[in-house]
Write a structure and sequence with these properties.
InterPro entries: Flavin_Rdtase-like_dom (IPR002563), Split_barrel_FMN-bd (IPR012349). Pfam families: Flavin_Reduct (PF01613). The protein is mainly beta. The protein is built from five helices and 13 strands. The longest helix is centred in the middle third of the chain and has 9 residues, at 70-78. The protein starts with 21 loop residues before the first helix and ends in a 6-residue tail after the last strand. The mean pLDDT is 89.
Length: 209
Amino acid sequence: MSTENRFFYEPSKGHGLPHNPLNAIIGPRPIGWISTRNSQGLRNLAPYSFFNCFNYDPPIIGFASTGWKDSVANIVETGEFVWNLTTRSLAAQMNQTSAPLAHGIDEFEFAGLTPIAGNIVAADRVAQSPVNFECKLTQCIQLTDAKGNKIDTWLVLGEVVAVHIEKHLLSTEGIYQTALAEPVLRAGGPSAYYGISDEHRFDLHRPSL
């Protein structure tokens, strides 16, 4: 088979492109908008683009964090977190919660979001989000490369123990309407997002302080 029309690269040697294509190829990816509390009750809310669902029964979702961030630390400390669906109408506020705030500053307040208590876990849900998964930690795994060297990335997996869905997203037959929710998905490039809606692709630039 001819390889003349194939772009080839070895990741360890760099890709030589304007932006890493891996993020765009494996995508669009749903956003892991993760809310947590630490043992002192301080809230944290942060988006993670390396997120997905990994098992049906029991339902297990997970996200990866580059670096030991507050979300990971809080989850390991308390064993609980909430995933909140990011919709097109919440995209700007989701992006605000990615700002590098000082430890202890409440991202809910910073982004103008309303916390609401979980039914089972102590972590708060985003009230404006139409879907929330309350989760209990199952595993926190430090990733390694092919040689077995540990890297500064942590995979957090959690069992979904409670689900909240706004009723307007369910059809009369009880089927969840994915497109109606207008979920925001991570696409390629440094700031590209994709919404399953008429607006489709749009850009957000991570805020700096």
